[in-house]
Amino acid sequence: MISKKKVKKNISKTGIEVNTIYCRRCMTTKKYSDFFFATDLELDRNGYFSICKSCCQEIYTDYYNEEKDIARALLRTCRKLNVVYDEVIVDKTIETLKGLYEKGKAVDRVFSIYKAKLATLGGATYNGNLHKGDLTFKEPSIYVEQSMDENTDVDKDLKIYWGENLDFEDYLFLEKEMSEWKKTHKCDTKAEEVLLKEICHKSLEIRKKRKSGNGATPAALVKELQDLMKTASVDPAKTSIANSGKARETFSNIIEIIEQNEPAEYFEDKELFKDYDNIDSYFKKYVTRPLKNFVTRSRDFNIEADDSDDDDFANDIEEEGIAEFGEPDIS
């Protein structure tokens, strides 16, 4: 008797049997075989991805075209699709791809190979019980996209700036140290930048010496660091002097320094330039006097007694008229 293969029936919550799945990326309805098994069953209750295999591969291809690296492309794809990323599975995937290429077979389903190898190991036991049955994405301890790549312009710039034969963590430490120094100290000239770079290098050397566990940090290294800081004028003693007293360039202190070193001109006759524009006289004539007449009903209309300004203005108008039109004819 030939046994028939049992076909899994997918029943929705409403009790209807469902034979197709809708892909939310390409917005088409496809068969179950066109979808990967889900890794997050809390979201995908039907047990399948909500994005079809073709769309998953397109996502990987787009990332690979940007990264030009299989591991980084797989990392970004797993992050987007919420699939666990494991370097062991990635290495096995790359080995499989190399074997296919050596046989002359074109491969256009890299993510499918990765997902298949992930599924065959089983979530509960795979990679030394690291994931414990949970195949959803978790950030790896060492970011793949940060790994050193000699073909990128950024890494070349780092090596040119800081030198060769350094680990990636060393470059990160040096960059962070330099950034912190520039936040608190001036770095405008080449000499200042060179000294700060040497301080960063010496700090890295001390850090690596302590990390090696070969005893206490040699006093010579600390002394060299102190000498570099003194040469660059960034040691605590010089920094305290620069930040105290008159050297603190607050706005009030700047004004005080100007008044001490460049005082305004002093006149013995204080009345000479007290009211140079004669504003006080104008105010009394045309503001105070009318208000007093209005309030006290006084009749002070005499404003011509000392109207020297008005006379000067009239004389100026007369002179300008004569210059333009000539002397008036009075005959």
Structural overview:
The protein is built from 13 helices and 2 strands, in the order E-E-H-H-H-H-H-H-H-H-H-H-H-H-H. The chain is elongated. The chain has a two-stranded antiparallel ribbon. A hairpin with a 4-residue loop joins strand 1 (20-23) and strand 2. Helix 1 crosses helix 2 (70-81), helix 7 (168-184) packs across helix 8 (190-212) and helix 8 (190-212) runs antiparallel to helix 9 (219-231). The model is unreliable at 1-7, 123-132 and 148-154 (pLDDT under 50). With 331 residues, the chain is mainly α. The protein has 4 domains: 20-146, no CATH class; 153-232; 234-264, no CATH class; 269-315, no CATH class. The chain is 53% helix and 2% strand. It has helices spanning 53-67, 70-81, 87-102, 110-121, 126-129, 153-162, 168-184, 190-212, 219-231, 236-242, 251-261, 279-296, 308-325, and strands at 20-23, 28-31.
